Amino acid sequence: MTAQNLPTGEDINSLLEKSLLACGVDLDAVRGDYPTRSPLTGSPLLSVRSDDHSQIDAMISEAQQAFLTWRDVPAPARGALVKRWAELLTEHKADLANVITAQAGKITSEALGEVQEMIDICDLAVGQSRQLFGKTMPSERPGHRLMETWHPLGVVGVISAFNFPAAVWSWNTALALVCGNTVVWKPSENAQLTALAADALLARAVRDVGAPAGLHHVVCAERAGGEQLVDDERVALLSATGSVRMGKEVAPRVAGRFGRLLLELGGNNGAIVAPSADLDLTVRGVVFAAAGTAGQRCTSLRRLIVHESIADQLVDRIVAAYRTLSIGNPLDDGTLVGPLINQASFEGMQKALEQARADGGDVLVGGSRVLADAAEEAYYVEPAVVRMPAQTEVVRAETFAPILYVMTYSDFDEAIELHNGVPQGLSSAVFTNDQAEAERFLSSGGSDCGIANVNIGTSGAEIGGGFGGEKETGGGRESGSDSWRAYMRPATNTVNYSGELPLAQGVKFV
Ligand code: UN1
Known about the structure:
The protein has helices at residues 9-23, 27-30, 53-70, 75-91, 93-104, 108-128, 167-178, 192-209, 223-231, 244-256, 279-291, 311-323, 343-358, 393-396, 412-420, 435-442; strands at residues 31-37, 44-48, 136-137, 144-152, 155-159, 182-186, 216-218, 235-241, 260-264, 269-273, 301-307, 362-365, 369-370, 380-381, 384-387, 403-409, 424-425, 427-431, 451-454, 466-467, 470-471, 478-479, 488-496. By secondary structure, the chain is of the alpha/beta class. The protein folds into 2 domains: 7-265 and 474-490, Aldehyde Dehydrogenase, Chain A, domain 1, CATH 3.40.605.10; 269-467, Aldehyde Dehydrogenase, Chain A, domain 2. A 7-stranded mixed beta sheet has the order 12-15-16-11-10-18-19, with helices on both faces. The protein has a 5-stranded parallel beta sheet with strand order 7-6-5-8-9, sandwiched between helices. Strands 3-4-23 form a 3-stranded antiparallel beta sheet, with no helix packed on it. Helix 7 links the parallel strand 5 and strand 6. It is globular. The structure holds 2-aminohexanedioic acid. 2-aminohexanedioic acid binds next to loops. This is Aldehyde dehydrogenase family protein. Residues 33-490 form the Aldehyde dehydrogenase domain. InterPro entries: Ald_DH/histidinol_DH, Ald_DH_C, Ald_DH_N, Aldehyde_DH_dom, ALDH7A1-like.
């Protein structure tokens, strides 16, 4: 089922400009020669400025300078900035969501959800600003206190992807700011307008609370701009979200200069469906996780490992649900699946499907392009379900598009082995009503991912938990739990109030 009424390029541009202005973007200041386009129609959007090497250098210097002031502002007062930012995000939720839809192609409900996720991380960070606690330990020496304190790092460089063009930056930025750092952000070339809109709201919060203006910057540049953040020694922490290929390039360069790294790379998320699973709930969970956001989340469900006794029945129901998905204009209320980001993404999907067929896979539904007549340069696709005879190379690779590979298992150990038998380790799920299976999946011998769920899909994590994964996903944790520690450095302090000078380990000296 497809929705035919795509907007015109003019419609999108007028919605975009109105929304950018409402967010406080100075259109004249951001305008430049770098072309941007809307995945809704493939039509051009406002062209943006390109920052060169010396401009990026100046941003890092300003951020470094602002850090010297910001680090001494009490953390709860830093929290007041993030609190104001959350108010502005709440007030301009629809404006920012419109920009996200226009540039990333998310359906309105998911674009609003992305902004809600930003508000949520701000709430969390504000609370965190009154904690940032260290431990105290008993000293072995009388009249001494031993404790740990946490201090800001400096400039945090954030590299983010197109698919969560604002939320991932906000996870990093809200925490980095309350922790006393300053931020230089290099968004995806496919998400610069969203970045400028999101950043304009932060700029307003900075002005409203009188925080130092230089504490946040957006770098509008291609890859070289990101590389500058990777290689600049003043960037104390580099937090990068994107492909495994990008992470493999970035990690040794940052490590080579002893910078800190936070990586959130690819996922190839799987779900096991056991015979006891509630199939109504499973179908809904699977369809949202696999087809939602047109399969363009790091957490999208890409592999379904189903018990052989229920496989046919479940697959039939998923296929039937896929046939009812409305694909088209993401601004329309009823639409569930918007466009892919661009042609390369569509081609990647086609190539993967071809390979899957060559490997003996059976494409049960989807895979075709739709609405090509209405918008030649937009790439709307029917999400695909492919029954695979085995977990072949193409299944083991992340294709950033809506392909769900289905495989079967006969015993639960085999299912876990299949599940963990991929290079990535971000998110995972089991659908079961057997408590022992659920517990095994969550145990150390179960899922090897950073996120492991029971009876919900792999995507849509809440902000309160740590977000990230293992193996090629890069090992970083962002957003909730103890992730704030990645933005700070611990110091161990020993305070002597005894008036004597006993040495540790009983050592005698002068
Ligand atoms: C991403 O795709 O990079 O768990 C982030 C989720 C969202 C975040 C996804 N909260 O699906």
